[in-house]
Amino acid sequence: MGLTRVSGLLFGGDYNPEQWPEHVWDEDVRLMAEAGVNMATVAVFSWSRLEPRPGEYDFGWLDRVMDLLHANGVAADLATATATPPPWLVREHPQVLPVDATGTRLDFGSRQSYCPSSPVFRTATVRLARAMAERYGDHPALAMWHISNEYADHTLECFCEESARHFRRWLRERHGSVDGLNAAWGTSCWGQHYTAFDQVNPPRKAPGPVNPAQLLDWRRFCSDALLECFELEREVLREVTPEIPVTTNFMSVLHGLDYWKWAEAEDVVSDDAYPDPADPTSHVTVALSYDLMRSLRRQPWILLEQAASAVSWREVNAPKPPGMMRLHSLQAVAHGADGAMFFQWRQAKYGPEKFHSALLPHGGVASRGWRDTLALGADLKRLAEVAGTPTTAHVALVLGWDSWWGLEAPESMPSNRLRLKELLQAWYGPLHAAGVAVDLVPPLGDLSGYRVVIAPNLYMCTGEQAAWLEAFPGHLVVGPFSGVVDSDDQVHEGGAPGPLRALLGVTVDEFWPLPEGTVQSLRLAGRAVPARTWAEWLRVEDASGDTFGDTEVLARYEGGDLDGQAAITRRGNAVYLGCLPEDVTPVLTEVLAAAGVEPVAVVPEGVEATRRGDHLFLLNHTTDPVKVDLAEPGTDLLTGRDLAGPIEIPGRDAVVLRLANSGARRTDTESPLTNEGER
Ligand code: GLA
Fold first, then answer.
1. How far is CA 546 from CA 45, 466, 507, 539, 642, in A?
2. Which band of pLDDT confidence, cut at 50, 70 and 90, is reported for residue 549?
3. Whose CA is nearest to atom 3 of ligand 1?
4. Stated pTM of the model
């Protein structure tokens, strides 16, 4: 299912006309047309204006907005408006409001003030979604549905009685019986044996550490409960407007929601990304989330929200220096986005986000920001032919939410310093620096086409997952503290890496977490490399004491408590790291060479190279000009110039080459977000 009403790349942002008098709207759409805006996200927080009293709708103002947008060539990403329940709903039914882990009911006055399990809330959202679909299903501006907004941003979980009942139903479904639950949760520990489901509660605040298996199921439940909210609305939209694609905006690499599961439930993946302009490495961090978004459905996605300059929710909200807004937008496109949209169109006059930047700043059309908006709109038009083009990667990073939730359970782990995002970045950073294209895959995902699979951490690993990795014919790299527990968070007997022991040819004798400030050195590729968070005492033998024989030791610890012990091993094509070296580049370089993985292009430090179809993106994230030697000539879509050989790219600038030798120029600008299968 594609966005049949928009072609080229999407450009625009959240548009909140209800915050402005109507006479401003004419100026809005005139300026949108001037900037080349082709999509606006509308009605995200409009429930209280659209349904001011129960069942009584006021669609007049939104009718006029939709008509105005359409008349000016702007398509609508129309929200179902359910992200904030209206005051009348929460006052009539206070049980709609969420309750925190201490039992405090949170009041109205912000947004997302709802309990995901509340039947009253759910029924009201479905009723509004139906009213919206019936009202606007045939409107020519409608191009995409936007259900709710950033699920789990403020409200991921609710600990009320309704949620407790819902959790118990979910547990009954998962475990079948109380005995099943007792076995899975290991309730013989600390005297928690249950005799009935109604004795089980959400993990509310307790005197000491809560059962980690209970927490794990709670994390699964919370992701599922919100997904049910999404699906209830989606069902109505599919029934009334089956041809309109449905999305909800994700929040990059988010701990709370299992985005693999969520992405299956929507038609188009969209994301909100806010790299911190003050962090010189934020373009690397954000690239990982862009690659995740592309990988979720293995198709182009939409950057639905980013900041034009500063945000309003950090301690200090740094603005984007000249060039960065454009460069970051192009970066999203370089990583598979078919649109670069923003929060928001016009900078707010009031509310918590009045200092958040926008495409049209407080300073109006005389501002630097507005000039940047015009320039970006023009650039995105020049890149129209990129829409719909695919990305090919030969390296995959494994990311699974169950394992992540298990790994980051508070208060019961060998160390709280092993954080999944950091473990992912430890590999992603050097891959990015090497110019290698990367996909993400879920445990048990399709590995065909990949030459290298890296699991930075697979704390939770089932027998089925081990068989999946065993069947992978390419080069495998597994990071520390993997294969530790099964899907119920119960430790694999015989020691880690559990079901991966035979594949990796190694057994962990003891975990050796490193406190802050402690360094365990290892000798890697002839150099002393520090490990700062984690190490393991490894045995190159199986649980019964028989050596695996053919396991090679690639690196040993040097000095400290683990002096001389194996730190990194290899058996066949499978490398295991019992530690997290400060820099994994030497391991990576060897594996990539053995697997024959080439960089997209050879580029200097700070320059990012990605490829989409026949297009090569070169993005200079440094502030200085850089020289790049082009392996193939091409035409820079941004300037129209034909380029070959050595070229110079100014600081914070980019080149997007249509490669001359890669086939005929695409003349059609296919609708973005058309599913691969339909192309
Ligand atoms: C997210 C939300 C928006 C807005 C921005 C601010 O993207 O979806 O409503 O709050 O954050 O950065």
1. 63, 21, 11, 10, 63
2. confident
3. 343
4. 0.96
